[in-house]
Structures are given as structure tokens and as C-alpha cells.
Amino acid sequence: MEMPICGNFLSGTCPRSDTYVSKETDSAFVITCRTCASHNIWPHDRSEKAAKYQAWLKRQYDLETKDIEARKTRAFSILGGK
Fold this sequence. Notes:
Low-confidence stretches: none
Distance between the termini: 64 Å
Number of helices: 2
Number of domains: 1
């Protein structure tokens, strides 16, 4: 992710754009400028949520496949063994 430029810098009221991610929530990033201490909110990318969902679906599929394969294996017992 490329850091966004300070909004105050773009409007000419901040001498230098020095932004960083000060906080991350489930739905957005809080971007703060070190120079003017302004805060901006940037929402998470929707493609990130889609990728997380796809990864979850793949994990569920893998778990199901392992479970099915485990049920297919035969249990052997030795007759007369002590």
C-alpha cells in the first residue's frame, strides 16, 4: 500500500507531508501526519476482504478433504493379539 499524501499538504497549509498509519480498525486505517498532526481515515480495500474470504473457503475445503480421507482409511485389528 502506498501511503497517502497529507490533505493539508495538498491544500498548502502543511509544510511537509510525513504520514504514517497510527491505527488500524476492522474497516479502516487512521493515517496521521507527523508534521501537522492531522488525521485521515482510509477504508480497507474490498479486494482484501474478498481475498480473506477465499482463503477461509480454501481452509474449509482442505479440512473437509482431510476429514473425508481420514474416514476412508480402514481400521485394522489383529485377531488373537495380546
